[in-house]
Design goal:
Helix content: 40-55%
Strand order of the largest sheet: 9-8-10-16-11-14
Radius of gyration: 32 Å
Structural class: alpha+beta
Distance between the termini: 68 Å
Number of helices: 19
């Protein structure tokens, strides 16, 4: 029985000292539930009762320093003792960027490997190339998780705010690389395929290209463009599994090396088959990379709403600094038209703030001294001095980002079924290919006639569509919802939402896109509708208020140019 698991906001430290036989190990365990000195004393006493254990519990930092002899007692027994004493060891969550996954079989296998570790619960998403891992300190730590991923044949690194920008640049570079490889591979493959054009007219296939030239064109396609398949297959097999790369490497290698053999026997060649398969699969990878990069666009747009720089008062002077350097307690200056960089409280100033991003309210809210404001919302007209309380990753906007990412990483029931199929897909395909070869060999006795159908089975079977389609659809749906202000807790909830017949809302006036639009004009006196709209747009052209923007947009749509503006004054909360 393991210790109860509870969520924790802060990471825990974990250390192992001395890995040799008989060496003492050290655990640094975070403890939740201690309220006084007697709690820490009771836990320390109970831990020290265990044979081979020396413990020290610190109430101030809510941690237990435990030294134990692994030859005498297992770490799980220590965790159980903490639970029996009435306290919990909070589970930690780690988000990892995963490299080296090439198909659904990879993500399924890695998830299985992680979940086989004691105290670990993991979800691996092929579309995002990320893993969310919940683990229990004392049984495994961050370094241990990274080592598990490496042994499975993949690379991993913790996701940070800095790594988000690096990931975007990496995906852009990956797309350019895939495009370059596909173009060059296509140029080398097309001459080989040109020999097959007469067959479209019913003419027998004639190889007009010398065998040595076909060999020369196919070789860079096989070993340069196809290098990733050999590398991926090796990493997969070394990690104890088989993925799509194994199928492609086996199928194309069989066609390529059989063709080399036939060059010396002056027999039929199949260089165009191996080259075409490599090129087409690289095209699939190109489209896959493009889809993956686009699915994260919604998250990037949300993050982009939080300003990168801020004006802050320090030592009596106003200075512009990186928003990442802001601290709780800083006084931030927000001018009209700027987005607020922090969660905080207004110290001075009066203004209207557009909070439609967070609340769905289409009309701005008046903000005065003592009112709360949030990062990502827009200050429309006045100057505000805001005392920062939530900065950087600790804002309501970033919490929305984290919730959206967590939902995107969750799995719908249909995806779990797809993952189960993907996990056994490759071995089954290999068995079918071998059976196909054996069947044709027994029927015809012709090696060539038996090899081609077997190669076809290997290269056309790909579990990627099965494993990539569902998570990509979930990411796009949840991301688009987040852009519109709709947060969905999980992929399962999104899948079940299709069955909804009635949707009950507990608030009115916020089920909008957050944008105002002019519906009608009721001009009075001598003014007609067009003249009234032009006059209103002329007055509002210096304002950033949503009502002003709606009037200006309506005037533009009707071809009404506002009159030149010579002076403009805005009274926060009253108008222009």
């Amino acid at each position: 029985m393991s210790a109860p698991v509870a969520p924790a906001p802060s990471p825990a430290s974990f250390k192992l000292a001395g890995e040799g036989a008989g060496a003492t190990r050290t655990l640094e365990l975070p403890i939740a539930g201690m309220t006084c000195a007697s709690c820490s004393a009771r836990l320390e006493k109970n831990l020290n009762k265990l044979e081979g254990v020396t413990a020290n519990v610190n109430l101030a930092v809510e941690k237990a320093h435990v030294e134990f002899d692994p030859a005498v007692i297992a770490p799980q027994a220590i965790l159980d003792q903490v639970a029996k004493t009435g306290f919990t060891i909070p589970a930690q969550t780690l988000d990892l960027a995963i490299g080296g996954m090439t198909c659904a079989s990879c993500s399924t296998r890695l998830e299985k490997v992680l979940n086989n570790q004691p105290g670990v619960e993991a979800r691996v998403n092929l579309a995002t190339e990320k893993a969310r891992v919940s683990y229990q300190p004392g049984l495994i730590d961050e370094a241990g998780l990274l080592a598990v991923v490496a042994r499975a044949g993949f690379s991993a690194s913790p996701i940070t705010e800095t790594s988000r920008a690096e990931e975007k640049a990496r995906k852009a570079a990956e797309y350019r690389h895939e495009l370059r490889v596909f173009v060059i591979s296509s140029l080398l493959t097309l001459p080989l395929l040109a020999q097959m054009i007469p067959m479209l007219a019913g003419v027998h296939h004639v190889e007009w290209m010398p065998p040595w030239l076909q060999w020369l064109l196919a070789t860079p396609v096989q070993f340069w463009a196809g290098k990733r398949f050999y590398t991926g297959a090796w990493n997969s097999l070394r990690g104890g599994g088989a993925n799509m790369d194994v199928l492609v490497a086996l199928g194309t290698s069989a066609a390529y090396f059989f063709s080399i053999y036939m060059v010396f026997l002056d027999g039929p060649l199949y260089f165009e088959a191996s080259a075409a398969v490599v090129t087409l699969v690289r095209l699939g990878k190109l489209l896959e990379v493009r889809a993956k990069s686009r699915t994260s666009g919604a998250i990037e747009q949300l993050i982009g709403l939080q300003p990168r720089t801020a004006r802050v008062e320090r030592n009596g002077e106003a200075m512009e600094i990186e928003a990442a350097l802001l601290k709780a307690g800083d006084i931030v200056l927000v001018r009209a038209g700027e987005r607020i960089p922090v969660d905080g409280v207004v110290r001075d100033g009066v203004s209207s703030v557009d909070e439609s991003l967070l609340t769905g309210e289409s009309l701005p809210l008046a903000k005065r001294v003592g009112d709360r404001v949030h990062a990502g919302t827009q200050n429309l007209d006045g100057l505000l001095r805001v005392r920062a309380e939530g900065v950087g990753a600790h804002t309501q906007l970033m919490e929305i980002v984290r919730l959206t990412e967590a939902a995107q990483g969750s799995k719908a029931p249909i995806q779990k079924l797809a993952d189960q199929i993907s996990g056994v897909f490759v071995p089954i395909v290999i068995v079918i290919a071998l059976s196909t070869f054996a069947g044709w060999w027994l029927a015809s006795g012709d090696f060539t006639q038996s090899l081609i159908p077997a190669v076809a089975v290997l290269v056309i079977a790909c579990p990627c569509a099965l494993g990539l389609a569902t998570p990509t659809a979930v990411m796009v749906g949840l991301g688009r919802g987040a852009q519109l202000g709709i947060l969905v807790r999980s992929a399962e909830a999104l899948e079940q939402a299709e069955k909804l017949s009635v949707l009950a809302l507990d608030k009115t006036g916020t089920l909008t896109e957050g944008r105002l639009a002019l519906l009608g004009i009721d001009a009075q006196g001598e003014l007609d509708d067009a003249a009234a709209l032009r006059l209103a747009a002329s007055l509002e052209q210096g304002s950033t208020h949503p009502l002003a923007l709606a009037l200006l947009e309506a005037a533009k749509a009707r071809g009404l140019a506002p009159a030149p503006l010579t002076s403009f004054a805005n009274a926060p909360g009253d108008g222009v």
